[in-house]
Amino acid sequence: MKQMTLVLAIAAALMSGTATALVQPEEVFSWQELDFAWPSKEAEDEAVKNGEYIRENNLPLGIDAWKDKLFITVPRWKAGVASSLNYIDLRTANKSSPLTPYPSWEANKLPKQGQQPPENQIVSVFRSFVDTCDRLWVMETGLADILGSPHQVSPPAIVIFDLNTDKVLRRYLLKPEDIKGDDSFFANIVVDLQPGRCDEAFAYIPDLGGYGIVVYSFKDDDSWRIKHNFFHFDPLQGDMTVGGVNFQWTDGVFGIALGNPNENGDRTVYFHPLASTMEFSVNSHALKNRTLATDPHSYDLYKIEGTKGPNSQTSESTIDPKTEVMFFTQLQKDGTACWNVKTPLEPSNVGMVAEDTERMIFTNDITIDSDRNLWMLSDRMPEFIYRRLDPNQINYRIFKVPVDEAIRGTPCDPMYQQSTTLRNAQQL
Fold first, then answer.
1. Each residue's pLDDT tens digit, 341-357
2. What does the pLDDT look like over 245-262, one tens digit per residue?
3. What is the reported pTM?
4. CATH superfamily, region 19-427
5. DSSP string over 193-220
């Protein structure tokens, strides 16, 4: 009876045109500039003196959660990045907590010329992925000072950590055929596996510059590269304005989100280029089977899901398994949107769950933790790249909101779908 009452209430709101999200996300962290948990004040002063730490050059980009740790990546866009892979202990954190290097300070230091780097060496990471087997996967680009004098410190590699021991389980160097010359740029990694089948994991690594996806099989310790027209950017959607900064990007396939597995353990893999408003999909079987994945005749296995609407360019996306709602960043709309994948992808089925023209400028990354909280990071990156951030204002923020609260009253809410069905029935 209570459920029917709620359905009727939502239906009434819809018919009056007032259905909206009911909550604002909690601002959990905010920084003017990033600080780090240095071993000592002397160590920090020495790093500043040597140019190893230039405070304004450290921009947070990726987030992921595991138990009481919130991982935060800081790519080496410019010189002076103190540590690329970091975390915050949520049990002791304050609103402007310093970042602690993971797994250690030593692992995040740039090696000296001629120095043999350790196995857990991390040069520059954009995003990470925590799987259900308590492993942290990172796509180590090995590239430093990207916007200044870029140099390849170490080969691109997948590095997998055991989060219970903080030890490296495996370091896999991408093969030359996985990389498309100087065009390749790896800024994301997503891991596909079934519960309890940790050794059968597959990693999907989009190449936004080389317009391909690299697939890695943990069991076979092997990788292969896939190409498809849907991995390319849309030339009509590369002109963007964010936070008053106009720029043109040609980023191809970027965000990947995994649907729920079917009885065979396969799932829908949703993906999109960044410079695009479209969403595409393919069954994971077409990626995990190397022969099929690299067969040109598999082209038609890829599908067009639809469009998110005007100015809806997206970096990251993720799906809540319980509701099958996809969340995706909205770079030009200063926020995060949602789409229930059980409905057709069209603008009327897309809802904004968070939007703030000041605090959410360039919502760069999102993740959902094991308690079904949606985390969002905004970092004003276009201003960081093309202008200069004001150190006297808050530039970086991390928000949190429960998934069910985020979608309430939006077209993504399952109750919304029920109320729409009821409304249509009343109109017959």
1. 999 999 999 999 999 99
2. 999 999 999 999 999 999
3. 0.92
4. TolB, C-terminal domain (2.120.10.30)
5. --TT-GGG-EEEEEETTTTEEEEEETTT
